Amino acid sequence: MTLVVGLGNPTPAYKNNRHNIGFMAIDYLLDSLNPTKINKSTFNGELFKSSKTLFLKPMTYMNNSGESVLKVVNYYDIEDIIVVHDDLEIPFGSIRLKKGGGNGGHNGLRSIDAHIGKDYERVRIGISKPIYKEDISNYVLSDFTKVEQLCLPKILEHSKNAIECLLENDMASCQSKYSIKKSICSD
Domain of 37? Predict the structure, then answer.
């Protein structure tokens, strides 16, 4: 069984934040499926199942995402994990796929690494970074601009396709097809 985790923060206040692109990607993908919602409060997250895949949105807030992931991993026979998250080091509109690696200062990844290790696949969705480093917290917790929002459907569609590829194929073939360095928003 594969677990696909979208990172974000719960509550409506965070819904359209850059940091919530992982939640947005999972919601977008689930809209195309007919998943079953699994109601088990001990997971501390929204969990859905479709075929042999589980989809998790941790409700522990970003910095404690690993707690929810660990509970699901300990309960189910999970073979593979895909984490979908925002990435400041990638330009807005770009997507990169990789396996393992460091957390790059991302607190959600740091929490997951601490709870289950670093051996999982990632769909990294670029959100760019602010001009001044000291603005990072405010930046990731701010909403996408109106111009950025116009491109979000295109980004979410591409992310959905990348996740679906990873569910059926190896990382290398999905990377060559779905990792994009140039923003898809500049077309």
Answer: 2-186
Q: What's the whole-model pTM score?
A: 0.96
| Residue-wise pLDDT tens digits, 39-52 | 988 999 999 999 99
User: Which of helix, strand or coil describes residue 96?
Assistant: strand
- Model pLDDT, residue 186: 77
| Count of domains forming the chain | 1
Q: Which of 19, 85, 106, 158 is catalytic?
A: 19
Q: What is the three-class DSSP state of 146? A: helix
Question: Tell me, what CATH number does 149's domain have?
Answer: 3.40.50.1470
Active site residue 19: yes
**Scanning the structure block, which residue is given the tokens 């909403």?**
143
97 pairs with which residues across the strands? Answer: 123
Residue 70, token pair as written in the block: 């660990």
State the Cα–Cα distance between residues 157 and 118, nearest whole angstrom.
26
- Asked if 125 and 21 count as a contact pair (C-beta separation under 8 A), the reply is yes
